[in-house]
């Protein structure tokens, strides 16, 4: 199996997890927080999409679909490319109101479609390109792609956990 198929499979698993985890939730469920300083499932799903949108757009040298396609309006959020959830205060997380499941999934699907297009265009040489950032060691495109995927999967797992807290054992059907 070639590297591209592995990374595409990984990103596809984020969508699978979102669909499974969000299925059947109500608006109240999406906005529920286990404690006031914890993330809700809706916030986590939004954050997954925002991180991927921002990071892939940055690698492409393009604008985020959050702004270009007006997704910020559907989420009732500002057209701020830096509004990805990183650094949100407890109050900001609590104030977040999730849109419906269809909007959460549709935004991720649009982001994922763009991510797939980008991944399919990459060469091995492009993966080794160093990013102009003040980190040591200097990250490459490949490192960033894996970092975004790891972040997305971690947060998808958090949604699974919060869903279990909210609905109890057995919500996955086994």
Briefly summarize what is shown.
With 174 residues, this protein is mostly helical.
Architecture overview:
The protein has one domain (3-167): Four Helix Bundle (Hemerythrin (Met), subunit A). The chain is globular. The chain is mostly helical. Helix 1 (3-22) runs parallel beside helix 9. It contains nine helices and no strands. The longest helix is centred in the last third of the chain and has 27 residues, at 141-167. The model has no long low-confidence stretch (mean pLDDT 94).
Major sheet:
none
Q: According to CATH, what is the class? A: Mainly Alpha
SSE sequence, one letter per element? HHHHHHHHH
What is the CATH topology descriptor?
Four Helix Bundle (Hemerythrin (Met), subunit A)
- Number of structurally distinct domains: 1
Just name the CATH architecture. Answer: Up-down Bundle
**Could you tell me the mean pLDDT?**
94
Coarse morphology: globular
Gap from first CA to last CA: 32 Å
Q: How many helices does DSSP assign?
A: 9
List the helices and strands and how they pair.
Blueprint: H1 3-22, H2 27-31, H3 41-60, H4 65-68, H5 71-74, H6 90-95, H7 101-121, H8 124-127, H9 141-167
Helix pairs in contact: 1-7, 1-9, 3-7, 3-9
Features:
single chain, mainly alpha, 9 helices, 64% helix
């Amino acid at each position: 199996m070639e590297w591209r198929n592995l990374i595409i499979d990984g990103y596809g698993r984020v969508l699978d997890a979102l669909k499974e985890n969000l299925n059947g939730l109500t608006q109240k469920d999406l906005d529920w927080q286990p404690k006031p300083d914890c993330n809700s499932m809706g916030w986590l799903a939004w954050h997954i999409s925002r991180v991927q949108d921002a990071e892939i757009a940055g690698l492409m040298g393009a604008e985020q679909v959050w702004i270009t396609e007006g997704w910020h309006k559907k989420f009732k959020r500002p057209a701020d490319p830096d509004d990805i959830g990183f650094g949100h205060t407890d109050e900001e997380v609590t104030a977040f109101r999730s849109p419906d499941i269809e909007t959460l999934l549709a935004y991720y699907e649009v982001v994922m479609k763009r991510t797939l297009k980008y991944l399919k265009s990459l060469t091995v040489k492009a993966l080794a390109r160093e990013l102009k950032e003040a980190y040591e060691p200097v990250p490459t495109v490949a490192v960033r792609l894996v970092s975004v995927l790891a972040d997305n999967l971690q947060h998808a797992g958090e949604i699974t956990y919060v869903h279990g807290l909210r609905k109890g054992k057995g919500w996955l059907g086994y």
